[in-house]
Amino acid sequence: MHATVVGGGIGGLAAAAGLHRVGWTVTVLEKAPAFGDVGAGISLWPNALHSLDELGVDLGDRLAVQTDGGFRDRRGRRITRFDGAEFARRHGRPLGAIHRRDLIAALRAAVPAESLRTGQEVTEVREDGLVRVDSEELRADLVVAADGIHSWARHALFPHHPEPVYSGSTAYRGVAHLPGTGLSTSFDRGTEVGVLPLTGGDVYWWISSVTAPDTGRAGLRQAFENWHDPIPALLAATPPEAVLHHDLHHLDTPLPTYTRGRIALLGDAAHAMPPFLGQGGCQAIEDAVVLAHAVSTEDSVEAALESYDRQRRPRSQRVVRESVRMGRLGPQLTNPVATALRTAVLKRLPAKATARVGAGITGWTPPRLPRPVPPRKP
């Protein structure tokens, strides 16, 4: 059986790794001239780490385990503490963080090199499994459309479905080298600043704001100079040209199905969400392991896609709704009375209780995939 995967990001490569692991031949078509490291860092929650284990993806020593942290206000006063040890005990895996380029590299390593094709402009996707790249036609038993939030494939399959909408915030992201920095999330009215240590002394930071500074990347340092350490130091250590800036969008109107014919939508193409739960990439990885399990256990591609849609659509669309709600209650909250009430509630939250928050999302466990049989020694 052969699958064509449109898109070589986290979701597309995870799908390719899973399909390869269960014995399928895969071809990954990436539009860019190379599988790059676009992006900064990414948080990997236990649901994603368990799924990567099933997919046979080895992160090695590139994963940074988050052991302690918590919420703070802009002056650095602690609001509540995150108990990393209790979190890992409850979930069987910790909260982790990794540079996106390292995650992409680990996913690529789980896919045969001959399966990866770059510079591929897809011009047609048909429900019978045909994919056209320029004048070349590729036919497959399954097509996985993992071409991102502004998915060309989704628009072709659902031309009248509403496009992603603005979530209400804009975001800045970057990576700085500042050894010894710990995990933290800091709030002010309408603004969130997250700090997530990576390996090797690097630190991933992000800012989301409903009233973003109009000075652009170069003005960030001045705009946040009165926030607590290490936020000013992280911004000072990041060259302005290395800062990523984009508005946050999500697919507000749920799709009626993630499949059409022999095509499966996956990741942001199916359920783009705002980043306020850190689940965008995690949900794409979940999609991949469920799809691989479905094609390895069902009697036909049609039955497998029906199973994939039945399992993934309710859960992932729930995570989209929860992400939107978390944004409105957290970094997008601007009312001073409501902000003070939120802070008061969080201050009363015991550290061990933070390990239980969101367990219905982060505590998800993937289905077991067939293990490849090692070749016999001569």
Plain-language structure description:
It is a single chain. With 378 residues, the chain is of the alpha/beta class. The protein has a domain at 2-64 and 100-165 and 251-330: FAD/NAD(P)-binding domain (3-Layer(bba) Sandwich). It contains twelve helices and 19 strands. The protein has helices at residues 10-21, 46-55, 84-91, 100-109, 152-157, 220-223, 231-236, 268-271, 280-297, 301-329, 336-347, 359-362, and strands at residues 2-6, 25-29, 41-44, 64-65, 68-73, 78-83, 96-99, 116-117, 122-125, 130-133, 136-139, 142-145, 165-177, 184-188, 191-197, 202-209, 244-250, 259-260, 263-265. The strands form four sheets. It has a seven-stranded mixed β-sheet. Strands 8-2-1-12-19-18 form a six-stranded mixed β-sheet. The mean pLDDT is 93.
Please state the average pLDDT score.
Answer: 93
By CATH, the architecture of the domain at 2-64 and 100-165 and 251-330 is named 3-Layer(bba) Sandwich
Which range does the strand content fall in? Answer: 25-35%
Number of helices: 12
- Looking at CATH, the homologous superfamily of the domain at 2-64 and 100-165 and 251-330 is FAD/NAD(P)-binding domain
CATH topology annotation of the domain at 2-64 and 100-165 and 251-330: FAD/NAD(P)-binding domain
Terminal CA distance reads: 28 Å
Q: Structural class of the helix and strand makeup?
A: alpha/beta
Low-confidence stretches: none
Multimeric state: single chain
What is the CATH class of the domain at 2-64 and 100-165 and 251-330?
Answer: Alpha Beta
In the sheet with the most strands, the strands line up as 6-5-14-15-16-13-17
Q: Tell me about the largest β-sheet.
A: 7 strands, mixed
Shape: globular
Determine the fraction of residues in helical runs and give it as a percent range: 25-40%
